[in-house]
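Check out one such.
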Amino acid sequence: MSGNELWMNSFVVFAVVLIAVIVVRGILIGTLKKWSSNKEERSRIFYMVQSIINWIALYGVVIYTLFHFRSAQWMFSALFTIGSEPVSVFLLIIAVLIISLTNRISKLFRGYVFPGVYKRYELDRGVQFTFDKAFHYLIMVLAIIISLSTVGFELSALTVFAGVIGVGIGFGMQNIASNFISGIILLFERPIKVGDRVIVDEIIGDVQRINMRATVIKTLDNEHIIVPNSYFLEEHVINRSYSDKVMRLVMPVGVAYGSDVPLVKKLLLQVAEDEAGVSPTVRQIPEPFINFKEFGDSSLNFELFVWISDPQHVIRIRSNLNFRIDAIFRENGVEIPFPQRDLHVRSVDEKIIEKWKS
């Protein structure tokens, strides 16, 4: 047989095997879906098995390609050289295969294996995020090093590369380097962590992700703000969930002069007790406290101190308390005054007085 005929036969066999793999994958996925026809009943194990089938199909085809064309000249012909080492298509495929497979293994562990461990040991979202990131970066760095060694890249050359990067950082990458190092510090020192409610420049939001350069915060208006990591180490940031989610909610309220002060205190405590009865977020220990703050310009100013167990419910609890205060004051005849000013006229033009009289 001629060379062209051999090449055509080889290609036909490869195409048949490829089609067979696609068909078998489709049958397995279809059978798996029949076992759990209801999407809501599909567990993490279902999606893990589905991913494994896809991986086996994909990487099985790649490995078969390498094996099937092992005698093909184009597979091992040098495309270029690194130092004295020739780099062929075979070596490139192996390197990409290592990196891709490592990335998928990382996703498998982070998506299907680690969540069970986190749930068992009751780890918070911040610890989970930190461990996921550390595991992913570590395993990917190892995969890249192995891939570079596979294609013949001398790792000793990385020292020169590191020197060049160092010069670049020194002259033009200070900001990027600062945010990168700050991201590492945030992940391990954890002054903020994923899930924390923070206040940045009077904007309240929840930390969604801590990336290597910036942190993503989701505001209460469902908007996302991107904050450089260095900001959290250099500026004043309020973290309502740092060590204890319990926080004190202060409700200012003013009543008219002449009001029954003991009654006002009793009513405000009743408001706190009623809200605690329907909302588990409001705590009864420490007990609510009434602070007679001051004699204001037009009102007697009080503050109702209430402790809540989750800062994410601040807006809802504050609104509920305001509704209750307004309702109970109306029922008991307690007036909430509006600002008033007395105007004293010392002198008026005589022409204006004449007009008033006329």
Summary: The chain has a mean pLDDT of 81. The chain is about 55% helix and 15% strand. The CA atoms of residues 267 and 328 lie 7 Å apart. The first strand starts at residue 78 and ends at 82.
